[in-house]
Design brief:
54% of the residues lie in helices and 6% in strands. The protein is mainly alpha-helical. The longest helix is centred in the middle third of the chain and has 19 residues. The protein is globular and about 60 Å long. 23% of the residues are buried.
Length: 210
């Protein structure tokens, strides 16, 4: 599922690989990309915002698995970032820069920790690699700090797959994806599902056929 403030595009494929991203983008390179840390989701845009919601869950897992050194401090830092992210649109640029400076400084202190627990060590290695992409939302306030909006868009598809067991034909999968794309895109314009489908059948959708 691909989305921004104007368009939602669903595709159903057997693979979650980078080839699907390349197929949909068709050579387009977005300015900013928000995603989890799945490798196929990386390297598609000039800037990247790591989904902080996924990181909070991973930190909580490490805490429950026994890490009392790194994960608790990292989780607290990410929670601070999430609170700031909720107000990012109302903050002056100078304020956002200051918040970024403070968060980066706090991250330095967390990264200086030396956890003995293997889950804490794993997280420390991870954030050593992606630390520059944790607080991108402060440089680009139009971008969310998580991909929760995408997760909500995907929920009906996940429910459909769970109930039906999946698609039995390629055309059925493509039709379902097209309908979800139409509904999601028009919802951003305040148009309900019925009207969205009705307008599409009349040839009035902003999404091109196929």
């Amino acid at each position: 599922m691909f989305q921004n403030d104007e368009v939602v595009i669903h595709v159903v494929r057997k693979s979650r690989g980078a080839c699907v991203v390349a197929e949909v983008l068709g050579g387009h390179r977005p300015a900013i990309w928000v995603s989890d840390l799945y490798s196929a989701q990386q390297g598609h845009a000039a800037e990247w915002q790591v989904c902080l919601a996924h990181q909070l869950r991973d930190c909580q897992f490490a805490i429950e698995a026994g890490d009392a050194v790194f994960a608790p401090r990292m989780k607290a830092l990410l929670l601070r970032a999430v609170v700031i992210a909720r107000r990012r649109g109302d903050l002056a640029e100078s304020t956002r820069r200051e918040y970024r400076r403070r968060l980066d400084g706090a991250l330095d202190a967390v990264m200086a920790l030396a956890p003995a627990n293997r889950h804490g060590q794993r997280l420390r290695r991870r954030y050593g690699k992606v630390r520059d992409h944790l607080f991108t939302f402060l440089d680009h306030p139009e971008v969310a700090a998580d991909n929760n909006r995408s997760e909500r868009e995907l929920r009906p598809t996940a429910t459909y797959r769970k109930v039906t067991g999946g698609f039995r034909s390629d055309w059925g999968a493509d039709l379902f994806a097209a309908v979800r794309s139409i509904i999601g895109t028009d919802a951003r314009r305040g148009i309900d599902a019925y009207q969205a489908i009705r307008q599409t059948l009349r040839g009035q959708s902003i999404l091109e056929p196929g």
